[in-house]
Amino acid sequence: MSPLFGRRGAGAKPDPADAARQAEREQESIARLEAGGIPLNAAERLAALASGEAAGAYTSDLSVGEFSLLHRLGIVPVTVVMGSSIFHVGWQNVFYNSPTEIHSISDAYNESRRRALARMLEETATAGADAVVGVRLEQGAHDWAPGTVEFVAVGTAVRLPAALRGEGGPVLTDLDGQQFWQLCDAGIRPVGLVAATSVHYAPASMQTMQAQRGMFGTAWRNQELTDYTAGLYAARHRAMHDLTAQARQHGADGVVGVSFSQHVRAVRVQRSMGMESEDMIVTLHVIGTAIREDPALAGAASAARPATVVDLSAPPAAGPTRSPARLQ
Question: For residue 192, which of 259, 267, 249, 268 has the smallest C-alpha distance?
Fold first, then answer.
């Protein structure tokens, strides 16, 4: 047969030893993931980065202003780190007759996020970094994997000056570089990222069903749908309870930068006697950075306080006089 139409790779036989080693590495990576860790290739790459064996430029998703400020403070970017987890949601009821938390969904969200952040923390420690700033936590789902939830965490791992390092190992925070320095300058130490999710089911009562009907109900007048309102409050209460519990585990005094993300969807349910109700499922995510007072940090940050910069290249803007802004 002509070489043009010959079999691709003819004459090049795969090395059985290489194939065996590759299969062994893949099995080890799966075992690491099942244990909540990171794959072998990622661990080796980050370890080489920490030891200085890996040559090349560092990576960062910091803005120019953040990079400049952190550089003045002696905070050195190491690399972009991430963590992810896709989690299957277990069995759940089709509908409920009383307000309740859907624990199977809440637990899936919370465990998926916990594993994603734990893998980010492992990447940070393996790279020899002390903290991650600007953590972005994205939640999603996939058409090719119905009934699943996913969390992906991305941020920049940095090395801190000795005076700014904590005793408990690397710290994750969703604060950007400027906010991180502002807290340190005020004598406040970020101690970790805290987050929680709560999914609640709010069935429609007879009063709510009457309010949603047409001329034969009470839809003609304005009224609060208290069943739905109560469901929103229940989801928020549970999420905030879990958030503050995590903050206490970190030994924090409080949580800053708290943000909420809420999703509501309707569930049409066929009930007894031919009655149909429009129930509600509310999913509420909350996240923030746990902090603790540490007056010693103020002196360390102030020693590297950036100078005030005034832009003299442009004429002053019309309007009220403003004092020069510190470099951000």
Answer: 249
